[in-house]
Write a structure and sequence with these properties.
The complex is a heterotrimer. Chain A is an alpha+beta fold. Chain A is built from 20 helices and 28 strands. Chain C is built from 12 helices and 14 strands. Classes of the chains: A alpha+beta, B alpha+beta, C alpha+beta.
Chain lengths: 781, 159, 288
């Protein structure tokens, strides 16, 4: 029988694209509803202040202004902004929808102005008079946890949100017995996720049938619905959340924000649809930031380069309030700070600090970039102190490929890995040995070539449900329904909520191969709680691994039912049959069988009345993973540093990533490219700056350097394939790998370049002045 | 206070009375309903709002509607001709030059002006030519390929 | 994102524009709008009345007239960057314009708007100073010509008087054996100059008969580095002489500092970029 070309593994161009390249996609701000009102928010100019009188008289006097609300109007009407994360002993601050009595960061919303147009709403917001009594701002997380000074949440008495310890007698012993202790202080600066589409929410309340419909730029429509229903005291089935086209998220839309409760509340209160679209300045001040840690990390090392323990003290810059996952992000950092290395003992201590800033939360990688940075910087520092090659130190410490499943000291189980293979491939592509020779030659000429290696590892596809907090009211599972329509069209309803990742295409590829139908027969539906039965969402590199596995389960169920139906029609036992190539056929003689159309007709027409079988042809599955997934790879950055200016000139960037089996290599490349760009941006360009008064200095794109095309080098990608045994597809996630692998590669390259000058440390971002200054200081000492 | 304007958008004459402060991007989106042009910042950096005015790429968030009076404006919705995609649209599709798609219309129109000036650009020229457009998803590499793809098609005479 | 309300006029002659400006004391002139409109949108600036110069004829021309090159105030960065006349007769301006903003900004932004706005990070001031350019201003009472050196007063401040409109920039064409260079360190987010050094060098018998250096970005206003010019004047452009000259570029100037570049680093960069620009300009002069 003819074999249709396999779709899985092929570079299939995306089915999402036609609407996007012609301007016909619908993002939230594109939605226009009859009678729609517009919200503008009055936001705090101060980082920390007591609020006095709020006078909206002038604002209300403008034609077109419908209402102005403050916290007093909302009292008792809604629940607070939800935080689902729980850390033992943590203090959970009250997180109101509009500021109550005090403001705690620049950009905190104080009053809601609703008008008939966005222009009028904006004008009126300027006319709301707010009295502030400014207080000292708490900005530095290390100083924040010390006694004395301003307290952000008075009821707690201090700014320590949590203090956790994970001690280890084995680690203590390893440090006592170490030949050497290698120490680093690492600043993981705050970053702005900066999805191209700012956040936006539209809500409509149909009072007749008591149905609330909310369109929001979110990565988690189902989780948002659960939280929103609770906050507004509505039955969950009265709330429909739609994530239409979403213009990027990067973790910042894995959240439920004040505005996402306020806008629906306003729509219900005013009986009219309400739209709110964030300006970029608001996005910078009032959408979650990423990273924000200061790490004191040290490794116990033997003379041969073997690392026997890692110890870390981490100060976390949490911001003023907790968003969805705020206090749990840094936990991933210490859990994985040994990276892909066989380090027998870990110990850590964390201080969570309240600061007068926007909350930090998940941002592409969420704790794992911090972990990989610690591990990869430590390896280079060990190499430097012992006079070894950084590659040799890594080889010395790798978890060997025959050690899987590998139990880590933090209690995780690594699924599969072959770290040396990816490393070897990357070294070969970049020509490592020749580069080292060239580096020596150039140094003689007073030129500084840097070669930075990062053999990162990460954790994704979380995970067994027990790993997620109970207040989430969801687990690590994902849901998928596959319905074969009477016409033979295949509808996939997935609980993930892609916003650029391309699963409308990659899931269709899986369906096409599984059933032997054309890709055009398949429609992948997502992002609407009224049509998609259930779901968790898209984050943590989980979409394909978990959503795809749920899809696979449903396909198997459908195929099983098809075989049962066909067995009745063909009078052959079901297990003698198989499904594929658009047919149900006899395994022993594939020329004998039924077309799918015949089986589908039997399922829906049902005149034959198949015993013990229900009519119809659909299946819903909830895939619960048994473990997390651990992608890995090697990134190598090569550039020359101009010591006179501190600028770099790129030579090469090579990345060999291993995310297990690949559904669509083109999409994987896209994920890796984008991830690397964001990781390079942390290393080289981006950094949130708040001044000592808590003012956001990097408040617009004029001051926060999101890289442009010419600021990113040409990337050379390759891969190795080490499938995971955890899920039926053998896939690991790839959404965050590039971000995680690239940052340390760049910093290692910089310090490698400047090693002959005696430069040992430069904090990110590696702005030219910092590089120049480090060189000057090294020359002086 | 309002000013009468007449602007040809995607070949169609549009006559309106508008507030002088109405930004061209809001005229296109909110008045004409052409929502393919996006807003990504307020400081003329991100380029998501890029359209063509008389064939030249401009950031429509930094142009008042009244300034465009009498001009010809082309938005992403006007790029297809007779139901056929523009080579740049084809290039972005073929080479996976987009993920979330939010920057894409602006990126395509900036590339349109770039290719008008440099029909056979090098990778470096493309990267510099598109420095007025931010993309947060692709890392730009597939965008470079998309523009090269389009340039090749256009030189081969498909448009 | 949304400016406060203002009234708007689009005069179709310079006289009409001047008359409007005379009547409206707080009016602002709109040229390319790429500094003013973002400021209005962020509500860092406001105005009761915008006078759009976009429909005043004759302000976009670039022409050579009686041995002088005249650039209309409304000439865009793009038209300067791609001007055949300028690339042949005064390439420093095209070199400088190519560094401004991005493709879209260069399509709208104008030389007159940029000079009149006097942003410390703007590129043109360095080039116009190095070219010893003149700025032509019209008012209801007449026309006056301001030497570039006398034009820039301070951050966002020039010697333009209320009621005056900048209409033209005049520069001399390059003499024989002249080379130029513009070197810039862009602020990574905004693209404005952290430092921009514009240099024009004329050689006569292997020696520098004329050296002009303009610097922007580093201080509250652009300046001419005369002390540095003098070091090279009359000397051969050898590396040592160029290095010695470059050291003088920051003499007596108080530098700005921000998160990306402190005053000390800016001063250092000015000297490095001056040296590199002088080297390049002298090499170009040699082969000119």
């Amino acid at each position: 029988m003819p074999v249709t070309p396999k779709m899985v593994g092929a570079r299939i161009k995306r089915r999402e694209d036609p609407r996007l390249i012609t301007g016909r996609a619908t993002y939230v701000d594109d939605i226009r509803l009859p009678g729609m009102l517009h919200l503008s928010l009055v936001r705090s100019m101060y980082a920390h202040a007591r609020l006095g009188a709020i006078d909206a008289t002038a604002a209300r006097a403008i034609g077109g202004v419908v209402a102005v609300f403050t916290a007093a109007d909302l009292k008792g009407q809604t629940g607070p902004v939800p935080c689902v994360a729980e850390i033992p002993g943590m203090k959970l601050p009250h997180h109101p929808i509009l500021a109550e009595g005090k403001v705690r960061h620049v950009g905190e919303p104080i009053a809601a102005v609703v008008a008939t147009s966005r222009y009028v709403a904006r004008d009126a917001a300027d006319l709301v008079e707010v009295e502030y009594d400014p207080l000292d701002a708490v900005v530095d997380p290390e100083r924040a946890v010390e006694a004395g000074g301003a307290v952000i949440h008075e009821e707690f008495g201090d700014n320590v949100a949590f203090h956790t310890e994970a001690p280890s007698p084995e680690a203590d012993r390893a440090f006592r017995e170490a030949d050497r202790v290698v120490k680093l202080r690492i600043v993981q600066q705050r970053l702005i996720p900066m999805a191209m589409e700012p956040r936006a929410t539209v809500a409509q309340w149909a009072s007749g049938d008591r149905q609330l419909t909310v369109w929001s730029s979110t990565q988690i429509p189902h989780l948002y619905r659960t939280q929103l229903a609770e906050a507004l005291h509505l039955p969950e089935n009265r709330v429909r959340v739609i994530a239409p086209e979403v213009g990027g998220g990067f973790g910042a839309k894995l959240n439920v924000y004040r505005e996402e409760i306020l806008v629906p509340w306003l729509a219900m209160k005013l009986g009219k649809p309400v739209k709110w679209t964030q300006s970029r300045r608001e996005d910078f001040a009032a959408t979650t930031h990423g990273r924000g840690q200061v790490d004191y990390v040290e490794a116990a090392v033997k003379q041969d380069g073997t690392v026997t323990a890692i110890r870390a003290k981490v100060f976390v810059d949490l911001g003023a309030y907790f968003q969805f996952f705020t206090p749990m992000i840094s936990g991933f950092s210490t859990m994985l700070m040994h990276g892909c290395y066989r380090v027998p003992a870990l110990s850590s201590e964390q201080f969570g600090a309240f600061t007068n800033k926007m909350a930090t939360d998940a941002y592409r990688g969420a704790g794992r970039p911090e972990a990989a940075f610690m591990a990869e910087r430590l390896m280079d520092e060990v190499a430097r102190e012992l006079g070894m090659d950084p590659v040799a130190v890594r080889r010395k410490n790798f978890i060997p490929k025959d050690a899987f499943p590998y139990a880590t000291p933090a209690g995780l189980t690594f699924d599969s890995g072959d770290y040396e293979k990816a490393l070897d491939k990357a070294l070969e592509i970049v020509g490592y040995d020749e580069l080292r020779k060239e580096q020596q030659e150039l140094r003689k000429q007073g030129r500084y070539l840097g070669i930075g290696v990062s053999t990162y590892l990460e954790i994704c596809g979380l995970g067994p449900s027990v790993m997620l907090p109970p207040k989430l009211k969801a687990g690590g599972w994902e849901s998928c329904t596959v319905r074969i329509e009477p016409s033979g069209a295949v509808t996939v309803l997935t609980g993930i909520s892609p916003h650029g990742q391309g699963q409308e295409t990659s899931f269709a590829q899986i369906v096409a191969d599984s059933l032997g139908v054309g890709m055009d027969e398949v429609l992948v539906v997502h992002g609407d709680t009224a049509t998609v039965q259930s779901g968790v969402g898209t984050f943590g590199s989980r979409g394909t691994a978990l959503g795809g596995s749920a899809l696979r389960m449903s396909l198997e169920k459908i195929k099983s039912k098809m075989k049962t139906i066909a067995s009745h029609m063909m009078e052959a036992p079901p297990d003698a049959l198989d499904v594929g190539e658009g047919k149900v056929f006899l395994k022993s003689d594939p020329s004998k069988g039924l077309t799918l159309a015949q089986v589908i007709d039997a399922a829906y027409n049902f005149k034959a009345g198949i015993p013990n079988i229900e009519p119809g042809l659909d299946a819903t599955s909830f895939y619960e993973p048994t473990n997390c997934l651990y992608p890995f790879g090697t990134h190598i950055a090569v550039f020359e540093v101009d010591p006179e200016t501190g600028r770099i000139q790129w030579r090469r960037y090579v990345a060999v990533d291993d995310c297990g089996n690949v559904i669509n290599p083109m999409l994987v490349e896209g994920q890796v490219h984008g991830g690397i760009a964001q990781g390079l941006a942390q290393a080289l360009y981006e950094g949130v700056v708040y001044d000592e008064n808590g003012q956001l200095v990097t408040g617009t794109l004029m001051d926060y350097a999101v890289p442009r095309a010419h600021m990113i080098p040409h990337l050379e990608l390759d891969s190795t394939v080490t499938p995971t045994p955890v899920n039926p597809l053998g896939v690991k996630g790839v959404g965050e790998a590039g971000t995680i692998g690239s940052t340390p590669a760049v910093v290692n390259a910089m310090l490698d370049a400047l090693a002959p000058l005696g430069v040992k440390s430069i904090d990110m971002p590696l702005w030219p002045e910092k590089v120049w200054r480090a060189i000057q200081e090294a020359k002086r000492s | 206070m309002n000013k009468a304007i007449e602007i040809t958008v995607n070949g169609q004459k549009q006559a309106y009375d508008v507030e002088p402060r109405l930004l061209l991007v809001h005229f296109l989106r909110d008045v004409l309903g052409l929502t393919g042009t996006h807003v990504g910042c307020e400081t003329s950096i991100c380029g998501a709002c890029t359209v063509l005015i008389d064939g030249r790429a401009v950031k429509s968030c930094t142009v008042l509607t009244v300034q465009a009076n009498g001009a010809e404006v082309t938005t992403i919705e006007g790029l297809e001709k007779d139901g056929e995609l523009h080579p740049l649209q084809v290039g972005f599709w073929e080479e996976h030059g987009l993920q979330c798609g939010y920057c894409t219309p602006g990126m395509i129109l900036a590339a349109h002006d770039l290719l008008r000036q440099k029909p056979d650009p090098t990778e470096d020229e493309i990267r510099h030519g598109l420095e007025g457009n931010l993309c947060r998803c692709t890392g730009y590499q597939h965008i470079v390929k998309a523009v090269q793809h389009a340039a090749e098609r256009m030189r081969a005479g498909s448009r | 994102m949304i400016p406060a309300e203002f009234d708007y006029s689009a005069p179709t002659s310079l006289d009409e524009a001047l008359a409007l400006l005379g009547r409206q004391e707080d009016a602002k002139l709109l040229a390319g709008g790429h500094s003013l409109l973002p400021a209005l949108k962020l509500r860092l600036a406001s105005t009761p009345h915008l006078i759009d110069l976009g429909r005043v004829p004759g302000l976009t021309e670039i022409r050579e007239d009686g041995g002088v090159i005249a650039i209309g105030a409304m000439a865009t960065h793009h038209s300067i960057e791609t001007s055949e006349l300028l690339s042949r007769r005064c390439p420093l301006l095209t070199q400088c314009a190519a560094w401004i903003g991005d493709l879209q900004v260069r399509n709208r932004g104008t030389i007159g708007g940029s000079l009149a706005h006097a942003d410390p990070g703007a590129d043109y001031p360095a080039a116009v100073l190095a070219l010893e350019g003149e700025i032509v201003a019209r008012s209801a009472t007449g026309t006056r010509t301001i030497a570039a050196e006398a034009f820039f007063v301070d951050m966002l401040t020039t010697t333009l008087e209320p009621g005056e409109i900048l209409t033209e920039v005049r520069v001399q064409p390059f003499p024989a054996k002249t080379g130029s260079s513009y070197r810039k360190e862009p602020q990574p987010a905004s693209g404005f100059a952290i430092v921009g050094v514009a240099v024009a060098v004329t050689l006569d018998g292997g020696r520098c008969s004329k050296v002009r250096i303009g610097v922007t970005g580093a201080a509250s206003k652009a300046w001419r580095a005369k002390a540095a010019e003098e070091v090279l004047q009359g000397n051969a452009p050898e590396d040592a002489a160029i290095a010695a000259a470059a050291q003088q570029t920051t003499e007596g100037i108080e530098m700005n500092g921000d998160i990306f570049a402190s005053a000390e680093y800016r001063a250092h960069l000015v000297r490095v970029y001056a040296r590199r620009a002088l080297r390049e300009a002298a090499d170009r002069a040699r082969s000119a």
